[in-house]
Design a protein that fits this description.
Length: 103
């Protein structure tokens, strides 16, 4: 399995294509810190490994389609293209895709 690394942070890649990147976000890693600030975030780890993320007008942060809390681990989908962002967002809104929490 391919992994993304930045310092001591390791993020396994679960799936990757031209439109989406699915990773296993570890607990303790924030998805975002503040609008347009990447330091110490999942987006920073991905970008530091040379993987492009969608950063269009509708995207708050590069690639971020949905969020997981900093202390929550689990599958995180990031958009690599406008098509990936629009389609995954549509699937979340129409509940074709859903988030499920297991405690």
């Amino acid at each position: 399995m391919r992994e993304l690394r930045l310092g001591t942070i390791v993020v396994p890649i679960l799936y990757e294509d031209a439109d989406l990147l699915l990773v296993d976000k570890p607990a303790g890693l924030p998805v975002f810190v503040a609008k347009r600030r990447l330091e110490g975030t999942l987006s920073e780890v991905v970008l530091a490994n040379g993987i492009g993320l969608y950063d269009g007008m509708d995207a708050e942060l590069p690639g971020v389609v949905h969020r997981l809390d900093q202390d929550t681990s689990g599958v995180m989908a990031l958009a690599r293209s406008q098509t990936g962002w629009v389609e995954f967002r549509r699937q979340l809104v129409t509940r074709q895709a859903k988030k499920e929490y297991v405690a």
